[in-house]
Design a protein that fits this description.
homodimer, 492 residues, eleven-stranded mixed beta sheet, 14 helices
C-alpha cells in the first residue's frame, strides 16, 4: 500500500472537509476573490473538457446543434413566464450601469450615475426566456421543427452558501433547448436527453445513477415534468447530477412562439430544456475518491498513465529512452501518458502526488526491474502493485485501463445498491436516514407529506424512479393509500 | 454561372450593407433584443467551433493549458494597473445588486434596494487583473514558471456602435495569459503566439495577414508591446484580427506576483496575454465572400460537400442510394457531407441557398448524368461547373477541396498585394487612402504625426510590419527623418 498522505483529512473523520481539501489539493479548483465564484484550475478544467467533448458528441449524434445566446437578459423577460420568475428572479446578478469613471482625486474608479440603464439586465441564471424570445423569429412552420439547440456557457445564481463545484454563484454548464410540433415529441426528447445523461454518467464517469421524475415541488420553475438522474455519494447523500425538463407550451405561450401545422393552423410550440454543469465534477470526485486522493475513471482522466523512472544518475539516459519507447506505444493506442523525470522531486513524492491526482495507472521504470525485463505497475483504484514484463506491456495497460473503468463502476454500484432500502415505517426511516442511503417509500402524493418529511429529517423526495417495479401500498407518514414508492434521501 | 440572389445587396453598391445582410441571410448571427449583443446561430457557431478546435490544438502543442476564471471582476482590481484602468474601466457592464423582488402589485420584478453589493463587480472586458490576482498564489519559485494558461469565454465591452461579429458588446474569445521568469522568454512567447495566429489565419481561414508591432498609441492598455495581425477586407480596409501583448512586469508588480529565482532572490514575473475573438468570423466573411453569398475555406466549412439529387419521383430511391454510397466514401476521407433530398424545395432554390451558405463543393446527382456514369460538380469559389465520372469521384473531391483552399488564399493574397502601396507624398496619400488599401509610409515616430494622419484621413498606423525591408527616409507629413515605414490604413 502506498503511504497515505497525512495532509488530507480522512473521509471517516469529516467527509465534507475531505472533499473541500481534495478539490484544492488535487489542483482541481479554488475559491476566487469574488464571493462564491471559483477558479477552475488547469487539471480540473482538463477533466471538464473531456466531459464536454463526450457529451457534445452524444448531443450532436441526436441532431442537436450548438449556438450562442446573450449573457444578459432584460429583467422584463423573466416576468413573462409566471412560475419561471418565481424560481429564478430572486438571487441573481443585476447589471444597472454601463460605465465607470475616474474619481475626482484619481484614487480609483466609481460607477458613473449618468450611465444608468433604462431597464436592468440580469446575468442569465438559465436561458429559457432569451432563447424562446429568439425562437419566435426562427419558427414559422412545422417544417422549422424540431429545433434542437444547445449552448455551452457560464450562468450565475447568487448563492449564499457555496462549495466548489457543488454550488457556486457562477458555474459552467450546457443548456439544451428544443422546440417541437407535438407534445409527444417534446416529451420523448426530454426523456431521450435524460437517458444520454445517464449513459454518460455510467459509461464515462462510472457513476451509477437512478433515473426518475421529480415531484411537483422539486420541478424546474416553468416545467410540466422534470426528469433527473440521482447519484449516491460515499456519505449516502444524493447528488442531483443532471435534469431534463418537459416544459409543455409554457414558454411557447409566454413568448408567442407559434407555428403553422400541416393543416395550416397556428399552434404554440412545445418545449424541452436540459442541462448538466460543472457540478458533475463534484459527483465524479465524491463517488470514487479515497483517503489518498482522487480516483479518476480512465475514460475522463487527463493523464491515464504516468511513468516514473527510478535509478542512479548514470542510468537516467537509458530510463528516458525506455520511457520514450513505452510512451510512444501507449500513445499509438490512444492512451494519454505523462513521463515525469523531474530531478527535484523524490519518487515517493511523485507517487503520492499522482495518487492524489487520481492517475489511473502508474508505471515505475526501475533500473533493477528493467534488468529482469520488468516494470512495476500500480493501479490507482485498488492501489495494487504488480511486476509486469515489457513484452506486450502496452496491450496489458490498455486492458488494465478498461478493467479499472469497469471496476470502479461496479464498486460504486455495489456500494450504492447495498444502501438502497425499502422502508415502510416512518420511525425507522427517521432513524436510519441519518446515516444516509436511498429510501424507497410509499408516498400518498401530497405536498403535505413531502413537506413533513423534509421538516422532520431534512430529506427530500429525489424522484419517482423509473426502474422500480411499483406496487400500491400505504404512505408511511400519513397512512393514506399510496400508488407507488418514491426515492427519498438527504442531498447536496 | 448560378443565378445571382437578387435579395443580397451587391458589394459594389454598398459593401457595408452587403456584409450586414450576408451575416443574417447566411444564418450566421443576428441581433438580439439586448442592445449590442448578438445571437450566434447554429451555422455560424459551427464555423466558430471549427476555429476553436484548430486554435486550441495549436495552443496545446506549445504547452498551454485551459482553465477558467470568474466572469465578474471587483471594481478595485481594475485600478491596480494604471494604464489598464484607463483603457478598460470605462464602458463596461456594472453589477450593483444581487437580488430582484416582486413588485407589490405583482406586475413584475424590481431590483431589491436592500441587496446592494458593497463593492460593484464588472463583467470582464478582459481578464488580466483577476488572473494575475490568482497567479500570485500559484507562483512561488522559478520552477512554477512558465505558467501557460488560456481560457475560452465571453467578455463584455459596452460598445455604442455595434456590428455583428466585428464589434459587439458581448463577444466570445480566447485569452491566453502566461507568466515567465525572464523578459526574453515572455517576449518570445508573445511573438510565438502571434505567429500561431498568423499561421491559423493563412492556413485555415485562407486570410493573408501582415504581422507587425503596434505604435505606442495603439497598444493594449498596460502592454509594453502589442503585436498584431492585420488583414485586408475587400473594401481595402484593415481588420485587426488578433493581438499578442508583451506586458513586461506591469501586472506582476500591480498584483505582487513574485518568484524566487535560481539564486533564491525575489523577482516580479513577466507577462504576456493574447487573444482572438468572434471578430475572426468577420474577417473570414469579408475576405472571401461574393455577391452570391459566403465563400468558406474548406478547412473551416461545417458542410464541405452538399449532394443534391435531381430526378423524377420514381428515380429518387436510386438517387438516395447513389448519394449514400458517395456520402460514405467521402466521410471515410474525413469530409463532411450533407445530402439534401428535401422534396419541398426546388433544386434551384437549394443551389442558391448552399451558395449563400458558402458550401465549397456541390454535387448534383442527376438521373440523366448518372446514366452516363457522371455527376455535376460545382466549386463555390469560382462557380465553375464540370461533369465528372463516378470512378474515383471521392478522391477527385478531396483534391478539389484542397485546391479550393489554396485558390481562395491565393486570390485573397493577390488582391491584397495589389493594394499595398509605398507612398512618400502626403497629398497623394490623402487622395488615395479614400479608396482603401495598405500604405507603407515613412514615419518619424511621433504621436503628433500619427494624430494628424488620423484627423485628416481617419486612417491609422496599423503596425510596423515585420516582413518589410526597412530603409530610412523622410516622414511624408512632418518632413522629419524617419527610420522605417509603417503600415497605414483605414480600418474596422
Amino acid at each position: 500500500m502506498a503511504k497515505e498522505l497525512d495532509f488530507l483529512t480522512k473521509r471517516s473523520e469529516d467527509y465534507s472537509k475531505w472533499y473541500n481539501e481534495l478539490v484544492v489539493k488535487a489542483d482541481l479548483a479554488e475559491q476566487s476573490d469574488v464571493r462564491g465564484c471559483m477558479v477552475i484550475k488547469p487539471y480540473g478544467y482538463a477533466i471538464w473538457e473531456k466531459m464536454q467533448r463526450v457529451l457534445d458528441d452524444m448531443f450532436k449524434e441526436t441532431g442537436v446543434q450548438n449556438a450562442y445566446f446573450p449573457l444578459l437578459i432584460p429583467k422584463s423577460f423573466l416576468s413573462k413566464e409566471a412560475e419561471h420568475v418565481e424560481g429564478f428572479a430572486k438571487e441573481c446578478a443585476v447589471v444597472t450601469h454601463y460605465r465607470l469613471k475616474a474619481k475626482e482625486d484619481k484614487s480609483g474608479v466609481v460607477v458613473d450615475p449618468a450611465a444608468r440603464l433604462e431597464e436592468e439586465l440580469i446575468i442569465r441564471p438559465t436561458s429559457e426566456t432569451i432563447i424562446w424570445n429568439t425562437f419566435r423569429n426562427w419558427i414559422q412552420s412545422y417544417r422549422d421543427l424540431p429545433l434542437l439547440v444547445n449552448q455551452w456557457c457560464n450562468v450565475m445564481r447568487w448563492e449564499m452558501r457555496t462549495r466548489l463545484f457543488l454550488r457556486t454563484s457562477e458555474f459552467l454548464w450546457q443548456e439544451g433547448h428544443t422546440a417541437h410540433a407535438t407534445r409527444e415529441e417534446a416529451e420523448q426528447r426530454a426523456q431521450q436527453m435524460l437517458k444520454i445523461y445517464a449513459r454518460f454518467a455510467e459509461d464515462y464517469m462510472a457513476v451509477p445513477v437512478v433515473q426518475g421524475v421529480k415531484s411537483e415541488t422539486e420541478r424546474f420553475a416553468g416545467a410540466l415534468d422534470t426528469y433527473t438522474i440521482e447519484a449516491m455519494m460515499q456519505d449516502g447523500k444524493a447528488l442531483q447530477s443532471g435534469t431534463s425538463h418537459f416544459l409543455g407550451q409554457n414558454f411557447g405561450k409566454a413568448f408567442e412562439v407559434q407555428f403553422l401545422n400541416k393543416e395550416n393552423k397556428a399552434e404554440y410550440a412545445w418545449a424541452t430544456s436540459w442541462g448538466v454543469s460543472t457540478r458533475l465534477m463534484g459527483a465524479l470526485i465524491m463517488t470514487h475518491s479515497d483517503d489518498n486522493g482522487l480516483v479518476l475513471p480512465p475514460a475522463l482522466a487527463p493523464i491515464q498513465v504516468v511513468i516514473i523512472p527510478i535509478g542512479k544518475e548514470a542510468q537516467m539516459p537509458m530510463l528516458d529512452e525506455k520511457a520514450a519507447e513505452l510512451g510512444a506505444k501507449l500513445k499509438a493506442l490512444g492512451i494519454s501518458v505523462k513521463y515525469d523525470n523531474a530531478d527535484n522531486k523524490r519518487p515517493g513524492f511523485k507517487f503520492a502526488d499522482y495518487e492524489l491526482k487520481g492517475v489511473p495507472v502508474r508505471v515505475v521504470l526501475g533500473a533493477r526491474d528493467l534488468e529482469k525485463g520488468e516494470v512495476e505497475i500500480m493501479r490507482r483504484d485498488t492501489l495494487e502493485k504488480q511486476n509486469v514484463g515489457l513484452e506486450g506491456l502496452d496491450g496489458y495497460i490498455k486492458n488494465l485501463l478498461e478493467e479499472i473503468q469497469q471496476n470502479i463502476f461496479k464498486k460504486a454500484k455495489d456500494y450504492r445498491d447495498s444502501r438502497i432500502y425499502e422502508c415502510d415505517n416512518y420511525e425507522e426511516f427517521k432513524e436510519r436516514v441519518k446515516d444516509g442511503g436511498f429510501f424507497l417509500c410509499h408516498w400518498d402524493g401530497t405536498v403535505e407529506t413531502e413537506a413533513k418529511i423534509k421538516e422532520d429529517t431534512n430529506a427530500t423526495i429525489r424522484c419517482v424512479p423509473f426502474d422500480v417495479e411499483q406496487t400500491p401500498g400505504v404512505d408511511m407518514v400519513s397512512g393514506k393509500p399510496a400508488k407507488y414508492r418514491v426515492l427519498i434521501a438527504r442531498s447536496y
